[in-house]
Amino acid sequence: MKKKNGLKRLIIGLLLLAVIGGGFAGAVLTKTIRLNHPQGVVGADISSYQGDADWDKLSQNMDFVFVKATEGSSFTDEKFAYNFVGAREAGLYAGAYHFFSFDSPGKTQAENFIAAMEETGMTDGMLPPVIDIEPYGEYMKQPKSADEVIPELKVMIAEIEEKYGVKPIIYCTGKSYRLYRSGFEGCRLWERNVYFRPLHNDWVFLQYTDTEVLDGYHGDEKYIDMNFFNGSKAELEKLCIGGKAFT
Question: Looking at the structure, do residues 21 and 50 belong to the same domain, yes or no?
Fold first, then answer.
């Protein structure tokens, strides 16, 4: 009888652990519990999806921002100039990112990005340009091969570096990191992981959530992405082109 009672207690204990563990895992996956929510230097990335931004308000909740500039060889985000100039005038460390197309030459993508940046007249003191490389659309299920992507990516990286004197930062997901890592060796990494902090420590920026809600924007997208800088404000300042964001 004692052995049966002991076995019963063991089974009940294991079931309780399974329930607790399942609940914890579910809370992590639904982002009710965040295991990677940082303390320190934080910032957003933003595009026209967030609509009209009030940079005086937004700047109260962040230290830096990356603004979507371009995509592919011809698209420019309709809110880019407003957001980039507004963020800088509000006193934020600001940079811009390009969404990399798998169906467009690296050179013309670089030309598109550079043209948009130069129109702002505010490239001195900005954070290094960012190339966002991640599977999209049909490439989510069938990613384009590294042999096809990497040569064009390297061309764009080289064009950006020649223009601004710094290698671009690469924004990547876990999948694009695994697929195309050899194409951006030597570039600083901005990694997306909305569940856990990466086990490796070779990232400079970490996108830790895509479900933040802040006061200061009104658009079709309710949420805004938030990111963590792996360093101090002084180190963030040194990243800026020319080593200084503000004069």
Answer: no
d(Cα 34, Cα 53) in Å, to the nearest integer? 26
Please tell me whether residues 79 and 129 are part of one structural domain. Answer: yes
Are 190 and 219 in a shared domain?
A: yes
pLDDT digits (tens, 9 = 90+) for 203-225: 999 999 999 999 999 999 999 99
CA 229 to centroid of chain Cα atoms: 11
Instruction: For 52-105, write each residue's pLDDT tens digit.
Output: 999 999 999 999 999 999 999 999 999 999 999 999 999 999 999 999 999 999
Structural domain of residue 14, as residue ranges?
Answer: 1-33
Q: What average pLDDT does the structure give for the chain? A: 89
The stretch 100-113 carries a mean pLDDT of 99
Alpha helices for 90-226 (secondary structure H): 106-120, 146-164, 174-180
Please name the amino acid found at residue 81. Answer: A
Query: How many structural domains is the chain composed of?
Result: 2
Give the side-chain half-sphere CA count within 13 A for 40. Answer: 17
Element (H, E) at 52: strand 52-53
Query: Quick check: is 246 in a domain?
Result: no
Are residues 65 and 94 in contact, defined by beta-carbon separation less than 8 angstroms? yes
d(Cα 27, Cα 25) in Å, to the nearest integer?
5
